[in-house]
Amino acid sequence: MSNDKAPTESTSNPAAKLWGGRFSEATDAFVERFTASVNFDQRMALEDIQGSLAHAQMLSEVGVLSTDEYHRIADGLKEIAEEIQNGEFPWSVQLEDVHMNIEARLTQRIGATGKKLHTGRSRNDQVATDIRLWLRARIDRIGAELTRLQSGLVQLAEREADTIMPGFTHLQSAQPVTFGHHLLAWNAMLTRDYERLMDCRKRVNRSPLGAAALAGTSYPIDRERTAELLGFDAPTENSLDSVSDRDFAIEFCAFAALLLTHLSRASEELVLWASSQFDFIDLPDRFCTGSSIMPQKKNPDVPELVRGKTGRVNGHLIALLTLMKSQPLAYNKDNQEDKEPLFDAADTALDCLRAFADMVPALKAKKDNMLSAAAKGFSTATDLADYLVRKGVAFRDAHEIVGQSVSFAIEQDKDLSELSLEQLQQFSSEIGEDVFEVLTLEGSVAARDHIGGTAPNQVRAACIQAREQIAQRA
């Protein structure tokens, strides 16, 4: 939750603080600013109000608040939510964080009843609840965008099921594959990412509300009820762990780091393929930019930037791991530093997915260039070896024969398929006229006709299966 109004700064007297009863001097102005989190945690304002509404309703149901008090609190919170959404809320650094800002505003609006809202909870379980609510919503948005990307990717893969391109190992031409098959490799990575995200969501979706500061509360609260009202699967089980656990944030950042790693690998290939040296694809102009001095340039800025943002998200994962590595139980002020890396990791993952989901379906394959490149580099050499094995030649002997054939072809400046039968037979008498059927690119890809293979009919079958898996998510 962002807001155009910057929090105001002022040196406060201790009595102005909601926790200031035991303090005899004002907070230092620098310390006040240094320890405040409202500049970034106000993003969770609506989640904070959502949690407060559930807490107030539960307090009313167990008799801690009267019905009238609950309704006054609920109405006041809803009015504050409107202020926030309209950009009219008066944020204050003096009030430190999103929780104290909202609570103070509530008391200002409805009087002393507002001070009863915090009964039976602490900012420790409150912030833990807010983060989980915020992250759960972002996980759902990221999951939807990931699904949109995969849907477009599978559609493109099916369209390019017959498009032959070189497959690489060590970035050297290895064996021919189809472009559709290559795209489905990206989809396989993203499927694992989606599974990780949904698994992470299960652990995010637990309610720490009611754990209070660290030990629970003496009030007759109903934690199952607040968990139900907030859509959590269940309450967390231990009050100490409830307020200090940030595993879920680390786990999400681990997901995001892996997701960005996969998008970065795809980005690297897009950058290479779009270069004049490869010239395999055309990226639409709307996903590229130009040069300030070289008018001919068309730079693949979107995949380059996604590739670059991977380091940013990896850094957030390390930051959170380092943040938590030495903290004793339970809550510590260190945990204020969890939000900015988490927020940015979620924002970055979502933005990168959106860019890819928009860009990938618009890719145009330059099929002739791909086919021409696949014909270079002796990419059917393995097919010749397999051919010889089927003729009864031991594989190691076949490997040697093909190696000699390739060496000869290099001397002749020809591909294997361009050698005559007589030239091939000088290396093995087992080679017959039918060898040229396996030396074609089309024959090579068609021969990989098994689950996970690059044969066009297998690619189409895999696309059907992928679409069915994606459809089941709804």
From TrEMBL:
Give compartment(s).
Cytoplasm
Q: What is its main location?
A: cytoplasm
| UniProt entry tagged with the keyword Lyase | yes
Documented EC number(s): 4.3.2.1
Family under the similarity heading: Belongs to the lyase 1 family. Argininosuccinate lyase subfamily.
This chain belongs to which protein, by name? Argininosuccinate lyase
Q: Which PANTHER family match?
A: ARGININOSUCCINATE LYASE (PTHR43814:SF1)
Pathway(s) annotated for this protein in UniProt: Amino-acid biosynthesis; L-arginine biosynthesis; L-arginine from L-ornithine and carbamoyl phosphate: step 3/3
Q: From the UniProt record, report the name of the gene that encodes this protein.
A: argH
